[in-house]
Each structure stands twice: as structure tokens, then as C-alpha cells.
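Lecture 7, part B: from sequences to assemblies.

Below are the input chains for today's worked example.
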Amino acid sequence: MGSPSATASDIRLGRGSRGGAAGRVRAWKLRLASGDAIAHLITLIFAASIFLVTVLLVFELYRSCALPRHKFGWNFFVTTVWDPVFENFGALPFIYGTVVTSALALLLAVPLGVGAAIFLAELAPPRISDALTFVIELLAAVPSVIFGVLGIFVLVPIMREHVEPFLKSTLGFLPLFQGQIFGVGFLTAGVVLALMIVPFILSVSREVLLAVPVDQREAALALGATRWESTWKVVVPYARAGIFGSIFLALARALGETMAVTMVIGNEPKISASLFSPGYSIAAIIANEFTEATSDLYVQALIELGLVLFILTFIINGLARLLILATTGRGTEHP
Amino acid sequence: MRHSRIWRKTVNNVMLGLTGVCAVATVSVLFFILGYLVYNGGRYLSWAFLTRLPVPVGETGGGMANAIVGSGKILLIAAALGLPVGFLGGVYLAEFGGRTFPFLVRYTADLLNGVPSIVMGIFAYAVVVKPMRSFSALAGGFALGVMLVPIVLRSTEEFLRAVPTSLREGALALGAKKWRSIATVVIPAAYKGIATGILLSLARVAGETAPLIFTSFGNPYWSRGFNEPTSSLPVMIYTYALSAYDDWHRQAWAAGLVLLAFVLVANVGAKLILSRGMSSARG
Amino acid sequence: MKRNTLSLRLFLGVTLAALVAGLTLQPKPSLTAPAPSPDRLQITGAGATFPYPIYSKWFDAFHKAHPEIEFNYQSIGSGGGIQQLKSGTVDFGASDMPLPDKLLETFPFRIIQVPTVLGAVMPTYNIPGVTAELKFTPEALAGIYLGKITKWNDPEITKPNPGVRFPDNDIVVVHRSEGSGTTFVWTDYLSKVSEEWKNNVGSNTSVNWPVGLGGKGNEGVSGTVKNTPYSIGYVELIYAVQNHMTYGEVKNSSGRFIKASLATVAAAAAAAADEIQKDVRVSITNSPGRDAYPICSFTYLLIPEKISDAGKRKAITDFLHWMLTSGQGMVEALDYGRLPKAVVTINTEHISKIS
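Predicted structure of the full complex, as C-alpha cells:
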């Protein structure tokens, strides 16, 4: 039946056996006879496959955009033209659109999400807080295509007929709110994205706020602070890192969001200061043009855009993980 | 600079009131979506709608039976591909493993999670559709399966870690091998959490549209097996909603309602399962 | 603990049962289309959105006559049809744009191009308060799409339309966001009537538009125009008719303002009869002829010359022959133009090349 299994070194998780290289090999061969090593091996293989698939993904993306990389080089990132006829492709309008809509989404979602989180963590009675959080987290599960469809049929007319004209008449001195009103455009896409990412911000922020020790609050209150002051000036700063982490996570989600944005952004590869103007995001143009790109350079330019987006989310995800790790000491549990 | 008590009190009430407004606003969005779909799609939902095939453009009375079944097929493949990898990978991370390799695995899983769904579609197109020279449910399932992995991995690992070491050591003290103790003691103890993680991940990918557009494509008829282009709910909603025909719009609402219902039921179910016997710690 | 596991098992069991039921229960023949027979053959195609209404009707009618054959056609746009055919992921393609030799050379196999129906592309607009049928000159259309003409009360637009009160509003231009043969026809026409367009923008299924919003498919453009006041877009005849949209007349090369209709489209095809004999890919935009509508074209099915699968080959050739005979009888009801006799003959010749 093999070697005795209930030794200390076996119980300790993840430790190789003592001794030199030869000793290790011998011990490994011995353990192979037992089921443990097989289990270890099998699960390791599956875990490794995750790593391998990701590497394959990046490699495949990189390899498949060789043509535009060689033809345009770094110019790809600063060209504003997207011309399939004369085969001149530039990523700037899409990077601009992706960044603008995501930034807008954050601008709207962060106050909403953090505000609601404060309410749910500090003010609401536990059962109501749990129930409302339950409902809001369901919002995160709504498929993006449904957001997009509702965006077209409900939000766009509202934006076109009420919100945008109102903004134009009150804040029209800002270049942001000038220009022709279409209903679709950066602003509408930003609003839809905001609604989609609010649950993430809210969920994580609420958790980190709840994790703040009671003493902090009580100390502030004991010193005469109002409820709001103790929350805003003591509790929130304490949970600041986690909240920022949630913002990064939400941002990463917003950057890659495809369907909802495609339907309401207007599909115009143009850079414009006006938020009313139609624009384009990286994910949206890939969705629209990938199966239809007629030349190899065209297809690969789209893939290069995909790679750019991937790298962006890569960086932001890394930053987010670091931040959340710094506060809670472990990862968060969100889909 | 001293603020008067009244001022501070006012600020207090206003700000706290605003946070309440934020919470209510966010909650109402979900109810609005649900209400809108129920109102517009509910009327069109009928047994015939659920069991018929689509009819030619311009004619009325079509259904989406093949889209429901197609989505089911694609999900099945996704589950078959993604669940074992995610689950066993999670077991590895929680029970075995050292320092660097698990860190690598976790980080790449996070990366995978952050990959925009459209890029996943391109990947699946390059890796499955082109070599096979055919759009297929398999390709769609592959794309969704890869998306499943990070979610399942993370939740499996977390729930396994949450199992007290005392349970593990108890099993080992009784003479069980490590793998045995994992299989018969630890995993069952974390069973609920893992199952909910799986359920949530399936609900999440069931609603994805972008990866399916250039992998499983579409099909007005039934698709045989897994190698043919397959209709799916999200793609159908997308196509019909953007069309110019009112009849197709109505069908899109109804399909949206079906999809949303499935997703919500799965999520609610998962949370209910999880919350029984697990109280949330309050600070 | 017992209650919890019981409810958990119940929940999982129900979900699993539903999944299995959904997958295994096949619908009874009486509820849906005839049950697939053992010899069932499915042929996949992709491409143009313009002919989608007539293609889906044709495929459905053909399927009713031959229950074992299913044509799965996805309208993703002409560019998509070309690309997927080239990649070999579909059995046939469909495109409003005929493939020039340069593009044919990039294909790893030979294809035949089969004109199927005639269609017209018209300017459609949504100007609150204006219900009349507007007359557009080529200069007006080119100017609008170039972004040179920005307001509805521009003289180029108002001159041919005395008696219509135009507002001072900005024109919202709408075009296709994805690769499309409809765009090709529209830009092909604009290239013929405007040097500036030809040199700066060109004609293709997808171009670098100087101005405007993008809509996905004919559906997207017509939908956007319908929902956006003061907008103008270009759509195929059938989409405008099905959506009860107002569309305008266009001045043809003989100087007359012509409204798109089956008769004027046929006139355009007739005027180009000789050229068509030489090459079915001839462009019939801005065709000579008194009654010719200037913005129309054929739409093509792209079929590989060599089809190795015998079943598919027979199904496709059978369909094509059916399409040229019975199929043509269905097109006018949906506002498409029938193929001229000469084209039918040429097509039959080409189809015989499929082996």
C-alpha cells in the first residue's frame, strides 16, 4: 500500500520532501505509488492548463496582428483614420471612445455606488441591507445584450428628447455639451455602462465598509461627530483602498463591455470633445467589423485593437488586485 | 473655523438622505428592467413561442425553440470544458501547490477573467472555427468554457480554503490518504459554496453575446450535434432587436424575458442556498 | 443541515432536469417545421442583408418543397459573406458588390457570381413637418454625404423642391456601420457623379465616411432614420416600403427625377443589357435611359465552382435552377426587381460550370 501517509510532512500542504535531489526523486517515486501524487498531478495539470490557455491566447493575438504591427508600428496608436478602402488604420478614435465612455461610467457610478454602499453598510438595518444588496447584486447578472436593447429603446429617446437638450441649455458653454444631439453617443454609452458597473462598486465597497472595526466609528461619535462625519471622515478613508480596488475592477469590466456599448455609442470612429457626439469603442468596432473585414490587413488591424484592449485590462486588473489585497488580505469573491 | 451645530446637522441629514436615494435609485433600475421586459415580452410569451421555429423575415408567428435549445447545448459544452478545469484547478490551489506556480495560475486566471468577451470570441474563432472550417456550437462552447474557468476556479478555491483545517487533520489522523480526505471530507464540506459558484458562473456566461457571434453564428433551423452553426438566445435577442420589424422586436422582448428569468432564477437560487446556515459577520 | 441539503438537492435536481429535458425533448412535428429526416442536409451561407427578406422566403419555400434540405443563411453583411466564403467556413456567400478580379485573385478557389435579384437604394429621410417626396440631385446627395451641405435649407436641396418648406436644421447623416454591399452601391453611384467623392472616399463595402452616424444593417439605418429627426440615410427599397418610410426621387443621367420602383429599376437593367452580356458584374448605377433609376444594382450569390460534397452540390444547383424559374416569380411581391431574361440565360450557363 505504499509509504505511511500520516506523517507530518504529508499533512503540511504543499511541501516537497527533505533531502537532496536524489532523495527527492526517490521520495516522489514512492509517493507516486500512492494516490496522493496522482491527485496532485491531475489537479496540477488542470491548473497549468489555465496558465497555458492564457499564454496561448496572448500569443495567438500577438501573432495574428503581425501585418499591421509591421506596417504601422507605433503610429497605430496615434492615427485617427480608419479607412478600409485605402487600408489606413489607426487605433486612436477607439482608444479615445473606450477611455471616455469608461471614465464617464466611473464618474456616474462611483458616487452612486459608494453612496448606496454607505447607506447599506452604515444606515440600513441589517435585514433590509441584506435584502437590498441581494437585489442590487442581481443587477450585475443581467446580460449585457438586455442592457443594450433597453438602452436603444428606452434610454436613447430619453437622452435625445430630455436629458441632452437640458444639458445643452444649462451647461452649453462647456465644449462637452455642445454640438448636435443624436441620442446615441458617448454620454448615452457612459450612462448605460455606469448602470452596469454600479453593482460591482457597491458590492465590494459595502463589504469593505462593513469590515471597518466598530471602534473606529464609535471613537468618532464619542468625539462628537455626526453620523455622516464619522462615516465620511473616518470609516470611508479607512476602507479607501478597498473602494479604490472596486473602482478598478469596475473599470476593467467597463473597458471590455461590448454589446451594450455597441448599440448606443453611434458607431462613428471620430474623436470629439462633445459628449453628445457619436463615437466608437474598441470592443464595439471589433463586434461590428470582424466577420466582415475583407482584407488580411483589415482583420489583423482589428485583432491588434483586441490586443490593445487586453493589455489595458491586464494593467488595470493588476492594479486592482494589488489594492484589494492590501486592504482585505485576500481576494474578493465576485463573479 | 467652527461650523455651527445646525449646519453640521443639516449636512448630516442631507448627505445621509442622498445615500438613501442612491440605494433606491440603484435598486429601482433592476425593477425597471424586469418590469419593462415583463410588460413588453410577457404578452408575447406563449407555449407556441417557446416551441416553434423562426419563420421567414416579414411573416408573423415565429418562435425561438431552437434558440433555447441551442443556448442549452452551448452551455453544456462550456460546462464540460470549463467546469473540470476550474474545479480541479481550484482544488489544486487550495490543497496542493507551493508559492510561485499557484501565484502564476491565480494571476492568469484573473487575466482570463478580464479578457473582453469579444476578444474571447476572436480567440475561439482562430482556434476552433477556422481549423474546423465551420461555425459550431463547439466553438461557442469553447469560448464560454474558457470564460467559465476563472469564476469557478476562484470560488472553488475560496470555499475549499474556508473548510477548517481541523476537518482535514481529523481525516488524516484517522488514516486516510490525502487525496481521500480531500475527496470525501473537504470537498463535501465546501459543497454548497462550490455548487453556487458553478451555478453563478453558468448564469453569467449564458447571457454572453459577443463570443457567440462569430463562433456559433446562427441557425433558423435545429442544429444537429455540436458541429453545426447554432442559434442562441443572446444572439437572437441582438439580431431581432436591431431589426426593422415590429414582430421581431416583440420576439426579442420575449426572448429577453426568458433569458433574464433563467439568469435571475439561477442567481437567486444560488444565493438562497449559500445564505442558509451562513450568517454574514457584522462589524 | 438535513433541510438545507434537501432543498439544495431539489433545486439542483430541478435545474438539471430542465436542462436535460430541453436538450433531449425534440418537438413534435405538428408544432414546428417537418421533422428532420435522416438524410437531412444543412447548407450554410452568409452575406448581404439587402436580399435577406427574399432569400429567407426562397429558402423557406425550397425547404417546404424539399424537407431534407435546409439552407441556413445569416445576413451579416456583404463583406462578411465574402470573408467567410474565402475562409471556407460557409458553403456559399452573398454580396451586393460583385467581386472585381483583384479580389477574386485572393480567393484560394474559383467562384461563380450569380445575380439573383435587382434592387434599388434610395435616400430616405425624416424631416418633421415634411411629408412630400423630395427630389435630390446627384450634387445634393454627394454634398450631404461629403459633409459639405449641412443644413436642410441649402439651395442645392431646396431648388428642385419648390413649394416645400425646409427647416434650418442640421442634417443628420446616417450610413452603414459595417461592411455592406448597399454601401458599395451607394458609394459607387457617388463616385460616378462626384469627382471629389471618388478621389477622397472611393467606393467599397466599407469606407471612411466624412460624416454621419453608423447603423447596423439596412435595419439599423432605417431604424435610426426613423427615430432621428432631420436625418437622411440610404436603404434598399424593400426596407423603406416595409417600414412605411418616405423616400426621395433622384435625378438620373438623362436629367429626369425618377422614383425607385420595379419599373424604373428594370429600365436601368435594360439600358445596360449589352454590357451585362459581356460581364454580369457590370455596374448599372447611373445607367443611361430615360426612365432608368440611377441607383440600383444586382445582388449576387457567390458559389464555389468546385463543390466536393455531392449532396451539397446537387442541393445548391437545384436551388439555383429553382431560383431562376419559380423563385423569380416571388420577387416582385417583395419589391425586388426580376432578373432580365438575358441574365437568366447567362446564369444558367455559369451554373453548369459547378462540378
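Note for the exam: The domain at 91-333 of chain A is CATH 1.10.3720.10 (MetI-like fold). Keep this in mind when comparing with the next example.
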